[in-house]
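Quick one, probably user error.
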């Protein structure tokens, strides 16, 4: 298969059919998807009971319960076979032209992403895109990447794809992407939005105690960048990444202060006011 898609699954029965439907609708059909159970459930049996059977679907398990997306992605990484690697959360969707659009860019640059669209899962209404209104292709360097306040989900050429850092769950996508940009220099990002990122009460930024966990995570990562192994980044990129994470920690602290006044405030709504 040309493209391997890793799908961590935990309590995913309510949404995984929708995620897979967006894979089945891809205009580039040369893909495989590895569904990695992180809840010890039988997703092959569940999907079969729903009449969903496709030879491009493969199944694996962490053998644990809620070991984390980083661990599930690494389990999937060990069994994929594609020349390009990407991820799809079990509650998100892809637009039909995503693979066809990103593959030529990933081939040329080593990886490619899109201007991810955030949706309110309850209403289906758009919240905004990760980069706002942009025209044409953007070549994103590390400094600009660190200014973003929502995820990027790249399609990565296999020679530039790495497993996730062990033990990093909060902002694990940020760490993975700063390592990727360190390797390839700049990440091309399309103006179009082909990853539909659904935000709900179970989203990482909205779960109880998330802000406190992000505070601890950011502080740990900053220390690692400034005095530790630096996640393997070049010295210049270590400084840029540390400064970017300090800014993210400051934003998280401002969000915690705002929540004290307005307990129901969500992170994306808070960011939208800035």
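Nope, works fine. Designed sequence:
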């Amino acid at each position: 298969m040309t493209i391997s898609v890793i799908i961590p699954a935990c309590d995913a029965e309510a949404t995984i059919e929708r995620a897979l439907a967006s894979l089945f609708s891809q205009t580039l059909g040369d893909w495989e998807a590895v569904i990695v159970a992180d809840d010890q459930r039988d997703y092959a049996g569940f999907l079969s009971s729903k009449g969903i059977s496709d030879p491009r679907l493969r199944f694996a398990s962490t053998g644990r319960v809620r070991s984390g997306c980083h661990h599930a992605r690494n389990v999937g990484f060990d069994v994929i076979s594609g020349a390009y690697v990407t991820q799809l959360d079990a509650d998100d969707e892809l637009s039909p032209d995503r693979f066809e659009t990103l593959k030529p860019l990933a081939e040329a640059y080593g990886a490619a992403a899109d201007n991810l669209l955030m949706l309110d899962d309850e209403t289906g209404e758009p919240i905004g895109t990760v980069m706002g209104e942009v025209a044409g292709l953007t070549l994103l360097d590390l400094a600009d990447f660190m200014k973003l306040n929502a995820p990027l989900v790249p399609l990565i050429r296999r020679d530039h794809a790495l497993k996730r850092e062990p033990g990093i769950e909060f902002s694990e996508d940020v760490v993975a992407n700063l390592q990727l940009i360190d390797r390839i220099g700049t990440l091309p990002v399309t103006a179009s939005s082909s990853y539909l990122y659904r935000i709900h009460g179970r989203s990482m930024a909205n779960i109880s105690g998330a802000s406190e966990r992000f505070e601890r995570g950011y502080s740990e990562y900053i220390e690692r960048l400034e005095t530790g192994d630096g996640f393997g980044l070049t010295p210049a990129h270590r400084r840029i990444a540390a400064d970017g994470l300090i800014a993210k920690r400051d934003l998280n602290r401002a969000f915690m202060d705002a929540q004290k006044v307005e307990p129901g405030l969500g992170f994306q709504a808070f960011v939208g006011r800035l």
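The mean pLDDT is 94.
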